Every structure is written in C-alpha cells, then in structure tokens.
Amino acid sequence: MANNIDTKTSNSLFMSEFSNLTDPRRTNKGNFTYPLNEILFLTISAVVSGMKGWSDIELFGKSKLDWLQQYFPYQNGIPSHDVLNKVFSALNSEAFSHSFISWINSISDMTKGEVVAIDGKTIRGSGSQGKSAIHIVSAYACENRLCLAQEATEEKSNEITAIPRLLDLMAIKGCVVTTDALGCQKKIAEKIVEKQADYVLMVKDNQKNLKLDIEQSFDSLKIIQHNQTLDSGHGRIEIRTCEAIDDLSLIKARRNWKGLQSVIRISSERIDKKTNTTSKAIRYYISSIKPDAKRMNQIVRDHWKVENNLHWNLDVIFNEDAGLKKKGNSPFNFNIVNKIALTLIEQNKNNKMSKNARRIKAALDDKYRETILKV
Q1: What percentage of the chain carries pLDDT values higher than 90?
Q2: Hey, what CATH class is 98-312 in?
Q3: Is the pTM of this model over 0.85?
C-alpha cells in the first residue's frame, strides 16, 4: 500500500526545485497514468543507483516499487522504458535546466575567488543520421565540485554564443571565470566583468594579433611576477612556470578588452617517468586580475577540473557517450539527470568509496540510497 508523502519528502529536492515543471503531456483532463514527479523521482533514484538507460530504469523501478512507494503513490506501477523515453524527449529542456540551477544554488556555497571553469562536451551517442551530436557547454565550480549551469548547442563553434547565455544564468559575483581559447572573446570578457566577476582566458591563434602582442610583451618587457610548481603524480613529472606582466603598452587592442589588467605566460615541461621522454608547451592568457603568478598558476590548473572531475565522470562513470538517447530533448535532459546524480554522489562524503562503489551500494542498500538522495 502506498504511503502518503511525508514531511521529509516535501523537503526533498524533488518536491521543491523540480515540482513546478510543466508536464509535457499536459491535456485538458490533466490525468496521467504516471505523474511527472513519480517519473523524475524514479529516474534520478535509478541513475544514482547505477542505471544507465531507460530499460535499466524500468527494471530498477519494478524491483524497488515498495521502496519508491514510501515517497510517491505509484498507483499504476512503473512506466515502461518507452514511456520514460517519450517523457524526457518532450520535457522542456530550458525549464528542466532552470530547476537544476535553482537546486544547485540552494546547496552551493560559492566563495570569493572560486574558479568557475566553462567548457564544452559533445555527447557522441546523441547523434544520428542527418542529426549532429548535441554539444553541451557547462560551467563548473572547481572548489565546490558542482556543475552550476549548462547550455546546449549543435556545434562546438557555437560555444561563442552559448557562453554569454550561460553567464546570464549564474550568480558569479567575486568568482574567476576561465575558458579555453574559443571563449576568448571581447563580448565574453565584457559580460564577465558586468557580472562582477574576473576572468582568465586562454589566447590562441583565433586571436592571432592579441597572441602576437602578448608574445612580444614577454620578449621585450619586464616580468614582474614568477612562480614555479613541480608535480610528480600520474606517472610523470611536470614543471609549470607562470610569468605575469602588467605593462600592457604593447597590447594594441587593450582598451577593447574590458577590465584587462595582466597578461600571462605558462610554460610546462613534462617528463614521462616510464619512457623518460620530455614534452614542452607554452600557453598564453589574458586576465582582469592584477599580476599574481602563484594564484594564476593555480587558477589555470583548476580550469582543467571541469575535464577531470565533470566530463571524465560523465564519460567513464555514467557512460554518457555510449548512450543511445537521441530523440527530441532526451540527450540534454538526461545529461541534467546525470549531473544531478553525480552531484548527489559527490555531496555524500561519509565514506572513502569510489563513485562506482557508491552507486553499487545505492543499488543494493535502500538506506544508503536514501542518504545519497537526502530523502
């Protein structure tokens, strides 16, 4: 017998931040065999527990129906994988994303100077004949280990227009926004400053003249800040040298870059411990922060956490690229579900188990699953 929803459930994320979503199947009658809140709770519970596709979620639901009915009635049982697919294909992605952002804002505690790394990821399994794979640009709070927001585009090149929209969705006052070279655009720098944040933007050949001016600056002008770090993990030794200049006299377009205060050069030398081979690279950046080589070195390192902590987990732990969710809004919406599940798992810090192990335990242990879901 299904229980009525109690106080602890009414305080859960599902009943608060996601309760106002409009059911895409809305009709004049407004009656559905499987209500949207039941579908969302089932799906997120299943994905936290290691399920990766619609059929897996259906199987989980049928196996855990008694447990699910502690929180929602499920009077008509569990929806089929076809129903799940249709609902997530039709669910308004923008509204779902806004609910996700609202929830993230309710659990995050952004500190001044936190690095917010913006980067895109193509969901390769979302493409089909005649349709490009969806590309999602995400903003990741590196210290909090939280995805703050996301925007979908059809091509990687469209990140240039997606990033300003993404910035509009977030409260990033006092943070430091980082992007790869594609995000090094005057309007993006201006938008970041308007949001009362700082920026560190990579410069490559897409800003050829700016890059040449920075190279000339480091060849001709005084380097006022210098910092070097050594990292011997992951089977390699890496020496990273960060140098910073605040003399912008050789940057011809300096007045076109809102808030520009410094240019940065980072030289890295990597030695593979196994092969003893050495590789070297030099990267350039512009920033609205006054020269602080030690801080800049760390900010640039932090930027790659969006790859290592967010995209890697979505690919490897959640198997996102191998998914076959192609229909309608399904790829973007399921990306949000994966991020919700990853966030819930990351927020559970009561043990030292791997994320895979936590998902397995959540599948087997109802009480542990409740701890992860905070219900």
Answers
A1: 69
A2: alpha beta
A3: yes
Burial class (CB in 10 A: 0-12, 13-18, 19+), 213: buried
pLDDT computed for residue 13 by the predictor = 59
6-53 confidence digits (pLDDT tens): 434 444 656 678 888 888 876 555 557 899 999 999 999 999 999 999
Strands of the sheet containing 198-203, edge to edge, are 146-153, 135-141, 115-122, 176-179, 198-203, 278-287, 262-272, 236-245, 225-231
* Spatial contact of 189 and 260, defined as CB atoms under 8 Å apart: yes
CA separation, residue 120 to residues 123, 178, 233, 346 (Å): 10, 12, 26, 21
> In the chain, which residues fall in CATH 3.90.350.10?
98-312
Tell me how far apart the alpha carbons of residues 89 and 326 are, in angstroms, rounded to a whole number. Answer: 9
Measured at the alpha carbon of residue 306, what is the angle toward residues 375 and 318, in degrees to the nearest 5?
Answer: 50
Separation CA 320–CA 260 (nearest Å): 38
> Which among 191, 183, 129, 188 is positioned nearest to 156, based on CA atoms?
183
Residue 119 falls in which region: left (phi positive, over 0), alpha (psi -120 to 50) or beta: beta
Q: How far apart are CA 40 and CA 68, in angstroms?
A: 12
Q: Which SS3 state, helix, strand or coil, does residue 309 take?
A: helix
Q: What value does the mean pLDDT of the chain take?
A: 89
Tell me the C-alpha to C-alpha distance, in Å, between residue 206 and each of 34, 210, 314: 50, 9, 29
Distance between CA atoms of residues 362 and 51, nearest Å: 11
Q: Are the C-beta atoms of 371 and 350 separated by less than 8 Å? A: yes
Residue 333, SS3 per DSSP: helix
